[in-house]
Automatic annotation (TrEMBL):
SMART domains: IBR. This is RING-type domain-containing protein. Keywords: Metal-binding, Repeat, Transferase, Ubl conjugation pathway, Zinc, Zinc-finger. The keyword Zinc-finger applies. InterPro entries: IBR_dom, TRIAD_supradom. The keyword Secreted does not apply. GO terms for molecular function: transferase activity; zinc ion binding. It comes from Lotharella globosa. Residues 1-167 form the RING-type domain.
Length: 406
């Protein structure tokens, strides 16, 4: 009854809260909703044939074709355990991202007589560590949170850009926590960007499927070119599996298996790229168009961020991804595919078998040890092209920049 006294915005928030409360409670009763926002289907868990309450197959395929986990209700995340999938989702929430930003960009003045909170947004170009409190005028180091003085007999820092206390590890718990948050934040951003690339790849392949089906239907050769549709379907499945392997790498232990896991990912990409090259083409003109779309997207996002309109921001992102997918989805002539039918069938089978074995090894723990939280020793990513290790602050390997310069 009281809803009639609420504004439309508050009413929407109240309804969202009620739905979330119902959804959370329904999970305890074995009922879960399809995570697809456009789908209204609900599912109930049932016992297995043994009647012992165990669920042997946790992946549910909804009528809308959405695959999701029957235990936690999230989209399909096998072989990543539910607790890791839930933690990954939480790390991407607005509340968590706000907390991380606050921990990375605010600090308390180390002067015991002051203690005021200071905000500083540090960019890649701003590496000066010298801070002066606006309240008490105390000089201190942003990196180690200690007194800052350069030069003289009582100097405690060599220059304004490096901190030996931080490099030696002789810092307090607050600084250690910030360094851990920074490292995990960079790791999360790195793998999240690669998941977005996979989403764009799926959109590209779906558009290519539509183009091919329309062309094949006009020619009336559906059965003759079924191998082609099967190949693209396998690529879509492989892309979704590549997407799931990113959070797996995020939680992987830095142990003896890590290098083997990275090399398996390298071979996985080789199989994947070989089949992708057979099925798609991307002229230079299309690459230029993609770069222009991304630049336009960044400009529109900067304007949208000022209004904090989440719906508008999401709309801009979705539109840009669709445009990028259209720019990339370029099919070859049907005669090209027919001439290479045998090679395409072999490559499709190779991708399917390799991904199946790879996922089985990850599930069994033969390739990677999945931890409950990121391993502190895991501070770099492996470039499958040049086999160079890069820090998570570097989203692109040096070999890629070298290729562009050439």
């Amino acid at each position: 009854m009281f809803e009639r006294f609420l504004s439309q915005e508050l009413k929407s928030k109240y309804q969202e809260f009620c739905l979330k409360s119902f959804t959370d409670n329904s999970k305890n009763a074995g009922v879960t909703k399809c995570p697809n926002v456009t789908c209204s289907r609900w599912w109930k868990k049932v016992n297995d044939n043994k009647g012992n309450g165990c669920i042997t197959n946790t992946t549910i395929v909804c009528d809308c074709s959405t695959k999701f986990c029957g235990l936690c209700g999230l989209r399909e995340h096998d072989p990543l355990p539910c607790k890791n999938a839930l933690d990954w989702q939480k790390r991407g929430s607005e509340d968590t991202q706000t907390r991380i930003w606050r921990e990375l960009n605010t600090a308390t003045c180390p002067n015991p007589q002051c203690g005021v909170t200071i905000e500083r947004y540090v960019t890649n170009e701003d590496h000066c560590l010298h801070m002066i409190c606006s309240q008490c005028k105390f000089h201190w180091c942003w990196a180690c949170r200690k007194r800052f003085k350069v030069g003289g007999a009582d100097a405690d820092h060599e220059n304004y850009y490096k901190c030996r206390y931080l490099q030696e590890g002789s810092v307090g718990e607050e600084v250690k926590k910030r360094e851990r948050v920074l490292r995990e934040s960079q790791m999360y951003k790195f793998y999240k960007e690669r998941m977005k690339d996979c989403d764009e790849g799926v959109q590209q392949l779906q558009l290519l499927t539509t183009q091919l089906k329309e062309t094949i239907a006009i020619e009336g050769k559906e059965e003759e070119f079924q191998f082609l549709i099967d190949g693209i379907d396998e690529l879509i499945t492989a892309t979704l599996r590549k997407k799931i392997l990113n959070p797996v790498a995020f939680y992987s232990a830095h142990d003896g298996k890590k290098k083997l896991f990275e090399f398996q990912l390298k071979y996985m990409n080789e199989h994947y790229e070989k089949l992708l090259a057979m099925l798609t083409t991307q002229p230079t003109k299309q690459k230029i168009d993609v770069n222009k779309i991304k630049l336009d997207q960044q400009a529109m996002l900067r304007q949208a961020m000022q209004t904090k309109d989440q719906a508008l921001i999401q709309q801009i992102l979705n539109r840009a991804r669709e445009q990028i997918a259209k720019a990339k989805a370029v099919m070859r002539p049907l005669s090209y595919y027919k001439e290479r039918e045998e090679d395409i069938v072999k490559a499709t089978r190779s991708v399917s078998e390799f991904f199946f074995k790879l996922f089985q090894k990850v599930r069994d723990g033969d390739l990677v040890t999945i931890l409950g939280s990121p391993d502190p020793k895991n501070n770099s990513w492996f470039c499958s092209n040049c086999q160079r290790s890069n820090t998570f602050g570097e989203s692109v390997c040096e070999c890629a920049w070298t290729a562009v310069k050439k």
